[in-house]
Structures are given as C-alpha cells and as structure tokens.
Amino acid sequence: MAEYICVLNKDTIIIKPAKKTPILLRMIVLVFAMVCGVYICSVCLKQISTNSKIKIQDIQVIERPSPDVDHENLQISTVHYPNPETFSRAECAQNPVRYFAILSMQRSGSGWFETLLNSHVNVSSNGEIFSVLDRRINISSITQTLDKVYNLDWFTSASKNECSAAVGFKWMLNQGVMQHHKEISDYFNRRGVSAIFLFRRNLLRRMVSVLANSYDRHAKLLNGTHKSHVHSTEEAETLAKYKPMINSTLLISDLKEVEITATKALEYFNSTRHIVLYYEDLIKNPTV
C-alpha cells in the first residue's frame, strides 16, 4: 500500500503509514463473498440436476413416431378396418378407423378432454375401462380387453355407430400401465395405437383436487351424491368450498413422485407413436 510522505522542510521528512482497514471488516466481507458464491453454485447445480432428470415441464406438444416403423408406410400402420363380431359395419366397412389411448393420471382433466373428443360424431372414447380390476389383473386380460375395444365390440354410452373414425379410451397410469408397460408398448406398436399423454402442469392443484375428490367420495356434498366430474358452475363451487389439509412434510416428495411417474411413462412408451398434451394448454386453446 502507498505511504504518505510529508516534507516539513528540506532537512526533515516524515513518513506516515497509510490507514489500514480493520481486519474484522475484511473477514466479514470475505465470509459474505464466500457464502454468496456457495449459494449461487448450489442453485445452479440444482437447476442443472433438475433439468437433466425431469424434462417433462419443457414438453408441450410432441409427436414422435416409433423408430421401428417404416415412415413411408406410417399412414397404413395407423389406419385399420376392424371387423366386429357383434354387428356389421355394412357400407362403412371400408371406412378407416384409428386407434388411440389417453394415458393420464387422476384429476388431470382427462374427463373433460374425453368429452371434447366424444363431441365429434365419429369419435368414441369409452371412458376409464381399466378401473375394473378384473380387466387388468394380468397382461392376458388386458390384451383381451384391448382387442375388444379396438375391434369395436366394446359398447358404452360413448359408442357411436358403424362409421366410427376413431376409437379409444382413457387409461390411468396406476391401472396396470406401468406394471406391464413393455407388453402394452409392444401391443401399441403392433396394432398401430396412438398414445395421447395428458398431464397437468400445476401438480399442487392436482393434489388439492385429488384430496377434495376423495373427501367428497365419503361426504357426498352434492345432494348426497358423489360426482368425480361436475357439469355446472354451481356444482364446482360447492366442491370448492372444501379446503383440504396438506401434509407439508410430505408435500415435496409427493409432488416429485408424480413427476417421476410421468417421466417414466414417457420413457416406457418412447418407441410408440404418441403426443404429449397439458391440461392448462388445452384450457387456453381447446382447438390445439
């Protein structure tokens, strides 16, 4: 550090040392800089780790054909001409039919999305058919059920007519999809089934909806009845009056578990023809 030199006269020179910064102040500044550096590094590493492990939040609308499918004949592999055993398609026998399956989680907007599909006169989405345990008890029962649906021999309130152009259903990930993912993926590729992944970006709101729906199952707030899907503003407001208690200790781990499940599902069905949609995006633009 520089020193101050004071000349009183030509015979006398006084050298004054520069003022020194107190050692305590230096240590405080050093510690503060180190703490800030460690914090910034930890935040950066956490973001990098999260983005590398869970990429689902960056996905919006994706269509990825299977690499095993001949792209020149892709149109042929996804168009079918089923021959039902329970009725005759008559003059519509030569009308092509497409197969699809909505893969989702409870309280992610799948019911509303399925209503959109069924509003088309020639599209049939047959609901949550694998909610019945016997239909998913093993891969054989799953395959038999799928064959029946895609052969147009499965009848529900959503069933249309002999001229149906697309047929499918919604399938929750906790209803045998993850346990038998390899066999189901092979079936989708073999039969040309298109998978529609429907997720919800706001996982906390989904959790609240799950808790509220579970409570209403027992309390039956709507005039003594339980409805998983409401159809009016009044019904929605009645259910919204219930404020569930959330376990803050388990909150982060529960939300991460949901994210991991969705990520695994995308990995399992990466080789199938599929798209990924989000409930929030559809609400903003249903025509997407």
Automatic annotation (TrEMBL):
The keyword Ligase does not apply. The chain crosses the membrane at residues 23-45. Coiled coil: none annotated. This is Sulfotransferase. Keywords: Membrane, Transmembrane, Transmembrane helix. The keyword Lipid biosynthesis does not apply. It comes from the Eukaryota.
